Amino acid sequence: MVVKKNGQRERFLRSKVARGIMRACEKRPVSPQQMDDLVDAVEKRVLDSPAREISSIEIGEFLMQGLRQLDKVAYVRFASVYLDFKDVREFMDEINQLVKNN
To answer: Which domain holds residue 62?
Structure first.
């Protein structure tokens, strides 16, 4: 089970993770195989977890790590939705942090 930010619980859905990754990687030089590999890694992490529940925050963080390695633009796209930036300053802070760590 996945525990969402609002406390609701739902089953882990591979298709939901894949949809988010595909959206982030749209029109980016990321192959379908690379996207599938990331979805596989997330699914494996969830299934291998000793806990019966995993937070959506943990899944999101893992996804952002994977996307950061695959494609920086896809990472920023995903992060902008996942981190729910309130304004342009937060968005720019994340981009600046990405550039700084590169």
So the answer is: 2-100
